[in-house]
Amino acid sequence: MKSYFNEAHFLIENLTKRNQTVLFVANALVDIQSGYFLYDDELYPCTLSQLASETGFHESTISRTLNNKYYSFNGEVYPLKQLLVSQTASGDSSDSIKKAIVELVDSEDKEHPLSDNQILKKLEELELHCSRRVIVKYRQQLNIPSSTKRRILLK
Q1: Residue 27 and residue 7: Cα distance in Å, rounded?
Q2: Of 30, 84, 129, 149, whose CB count within 10 A is highest?
Q3: Whole-structure pTM value
Q4: Are 71 and 80 in contact (CB under 8 A)?
Q5: Do residues 124 and 83 make contact, with C-beta atoms less than 8 angstroms apart?
């Protein structure tokens, strides 16, 4: 009976420790992305290594902790890993660049859509710096077709 009690105690201790780790890491991530939750801002660049250094856990622990964990926001459910956002070489958030691309494409002239090079120039005017290759990558991730396929011919 004593061995069963010890096994149960061990299991409960480990579950408690796991829950504390999840809560600690999620709170740190929400702290970093507070502007997103409070003001609907872009997600701030945050990587596993940055989160690991802030929390004191190893990157692999952070990754395993966030894997298959979700949060509810505005009636929608999202994976916690979605709050981890890479940054470009210039330090801009990939999320801010993606939002800017969507806004530029939504507001473009449908008869003369913006090419990837034109999008690049407009982003640089907004002080968002990336390469044309990155624009192509993000455009494909956002399911935005190329300029030739977006062109609408009006009769």
Answers
A1: 30
A2: 84
A3: 0.68
A4: yes
A5: no
